[in-house]
Amino acid sequence: MNKFIIGTFLILGFGFYELSGGAEFQPEQREITELAAVKDAPVVVPFNAPKVSRAATIEIPVAEAVIVEASLEEPAEAPVIAETPLDLRVVSGNRVNMRMGPGTNYGVLDKLTRGAQAEVLEVTGDGWSRIRVIETGQIGWMSSRLLSAI
Q1: Is residue 58 in a domain?
Q2: Number of domains the chain contains
Q3: pLDDT for 96-107, tens place per residue?
Q4: Does residue 145 belong to any structural domain of this protein?
Q5: Per residue in 113-143, pLDDT tens?
Q6: In a domain, 19, yes or no
Q7: Residue 118's domain spans which residues?
Q8: How far apart are the C-alpha atoms of 138 and 18, rounded to whole Å?
Q9: Residue 147 has pLDDT above 80, yes or no
Q10: Helices (H) and strands (E) in the chain, counts
């Protein structure tokens, strides 16, 4: 086996030598151009030169105070907003990937175990659910078939 490997390297080395030009190899000659010399001397600016900016002439308006009257009366009742019920589901797989987006080509955010509760925020038409994990509040995507109703 060693003879085969050494022989292969010798053949490849000889082939490379011949294909690159062998003994007749002449490197390509390139024209050399010189860069032009700088004729103008740099301008020296004194360090202590005063500079005036427009910011020195801008006037800043003074805000007026607003007085708010306090009252000891009971405030009127705020309108009651009907709460929508949460769509809570349970993870039905053993260790299920929660992903950054709706598909297996997105990165994994976390692995949820069987029985973890999640609120379904959105469901796509191709079988993915955007969920919020109840314990951690983390939001991600999971396959809808791995979530079951409570």
Answers
A1: no
A2: 1
A3: 999 999 999 999
A4: yes
A5: 999 999 999 998 899 999 999 998 999 999 9
A6: no
A7: 88-149
A8: 63
A9: yes
A10: 1, 7
User: How high is the pLDDT of residue 59?
Assistant: 65
Q: What is the pLDDT of residues 31-78, one digit of tens each?
A: 887 777 767 777 776 666 566 655 555 566 666 777 777 667 776 676
Q: How far apart are CA 120 and CA 132, in angstroms?
A: 7
- Beta strand residue intervals within 1-150, DSSP E: 88-91, 95-99, 108-113, 117-123, 128-133, 139-143, 147-149
Alpha carbons 89 and 64: distance in angstroms, whole number: 54
Contact 142, 92 (CB under 8 A): no
Whether the predicted pLDDT of 81 surpasses 70: no
129 bridge partner residues: 123, 142
Whether this model's pTM surpasses 0.70: no
Instruction: Reduce the DSSP state of residue 109 to 3 states and report it.
Output: strand
Q: Edge-to-edge strand order for the sheet containing 117-123?
A: 108-113, 95-99, 139-143, 128-133, 117-123, 88-91, 147-149
**Using an 8 Å Cβ cutoff, are 14 and 22 in contact?**
no
Say how far apart CA 3 and CA 14 lie, in whole Å: 16
> In this structure, what CATH number is given to the domain that contains residue 125?
2.30.30.40
